Amino acid sequence: MARFLGLLIATLSVCLQAVLAQNAFSGAVGFGAIATGGNSGSTVHVTNLADSGTGSFRDAVSGSNRNIVFDVAGYIVLKSAVSLSSSITINGQTAPGGGIGLMGAEISASGKSNIIIRNLRMRQGTMDSDTGKSAFNMGDAKNVILDHCSFAYGQFDSIDAVGAVNITVSNSIIAFPIGQQFGAHVETGPSTFYGNLWVSAHNRQPLSKDNTQYVNNIVYNYQAAYTSANTGGYFSHDIINNYFIAGPSTSSAGDDYYQMDNKQSVYATGNFLDSNKDGALNGAAANSVGSAVVLSKPWASTSLGLATNSAAAAVTSVLANAGATPRDEVDTFAVNTVKSYGKSGTIYKSQADTGLSNGGYGTLTATSTKKRAVQFAV
Ligand SMILES: *[C@@H]1O[C@H](CO)[C@@H](O)[C@H](O)[C@H]1NC(C)=O
């Protein structure tokens, strides 16, 4: 019997390894899920919060085939943009206490490939004098998955993904962009946006000049939300079970879909729009997407399988789970803003205008009584 159990466990673990080999992590979804990062590489510890040097984040991400873990919590104040290497996994959930964040400059995967980032806070803000940079840049990158991350105070975009191939942004909070006040810009693709919370932006949530899967996203206090910007290009979009919620900055709730011309082909179902700003979630179906061509079935074979939550169920789930773990001051503020359902929300010009601690960046505690998260926990 013991022998049989041993064999069974061995077999199961071989199966699990096979699953992990094909997918970034258990539960990874979308086009970026094929990334394997540095999962099979060497483990590199970030041991201090310094901008550079031995034990720093910048040093840890300077080589490929690395699985990066954190022995420290708090903000790393970047003096300049930090460039990631290909084939790395960044496990923010390994940090103790309040978790790990990067502030003051761009995190860039530009031109790189095969990257997994989880539970990382990326908050550029006005500390960065380069207004042409974003919170996260993956221009011309391929096979990248960002999961349970928190993006805030991006100046050019929160996420810039021009020329990016096979990307996923899932279960993340993309909030309070300053500067151009834009969410995400994707060209080339394909891209997947799943289960994200987008809060208080002018536009680009996302700007999608590619074939896109957009499932279970919640967009709050937008001026424009999902757009293709009348691009001239022919793209396909699966837009399923998302909830658009107007806020104080929403002057035209009908810009939930924006500049979607007849070169765009769209499969839209299960989407809702709550336009009345009355403090309660009580939207109506919203599946009419500009002058786009209506698709009778999704362009991507995996889109319907992703859409297990209705738009309303996604609101509950995303508000409870999106963003880096553990949830911190900035993300709590973002979530509470959404929970006002139309009553509060500002499109900011600076992180300082939020009134949060630490000049608006919020505080990440170094210690916590909570048990340290296991490396690959969701
Ligand atoms: C993108 O992903 C597909 C599988 O979905 C793969 O066949 C293709 O090679 C990937 N593209 C690049 C540039 O790696």
Quick tags:
14-stranded parallel beta sheet; 13% helix; binds 2-acetamido-2-deoxy-beta-D-glucopyranose; Pectin_lyase_fold/virulence; 30% strand; alpha/beta; 378 residues; Pectate Lyase C-like; 5 helices
Q: Can you walk through the features of this model?
A:
One of its GO terms (molecular function) is lyase activity. Keywords: Glycoprotein, Lyase, Metal-binding, Signal. Residues 1-21 form the signal peptide. This is Polysaccharide lyase family 1 protein. There is one protein chain. The protein has 378 residues and is α/β, with parallel strands linked by helices. The chain has a single domain (2-358), classed as Pectate Lyase C-like (3 Solenoid). 13% of the residues lie in helices and 30% in strands. It is built from five helices and 26 strands. The protein has helices at residues 2-22, 57-60, 303-306, 311-321, 329-339, and strands spanning 42-46, 66-70, 74-77, 82-83, 88-91, 100-103, 107-108, 113-118, 121-123, 136-137, 142-147, 150-152, 159-170, 173-175, 184-194, 197-199, 207-215, 218-220, 226-227, 235-240, 243-245, 257-258, 264-269, 272-274, 284-285, 293-294. The strands form three sheets. Strands 1, 2, 4, 5, 7, 8, 10, 11, 13, 15, 17, 20, 23 and 26 form a 14-stranded parallel sheet that branches. A ten-stranded mixed sheet has the order 3-6-9-12-14-16-18-21-24-25, with helices on one face. The protein has a two-stranded parallel sheet with strand order 19-22. Helix 2 (57-60) links the parallel strand 1 (42-46) and strand 2 (66-70). The model is unreliable at 5-21 and 373-378 (pLDDT under 50). Bound molecules: 2-acetamido-2-deoxy-beta-D-glucopyranose. 2-acetamido-2-deoxy-beta-D-glucopyranose is lined by residues 34, 142-143, 165-166.
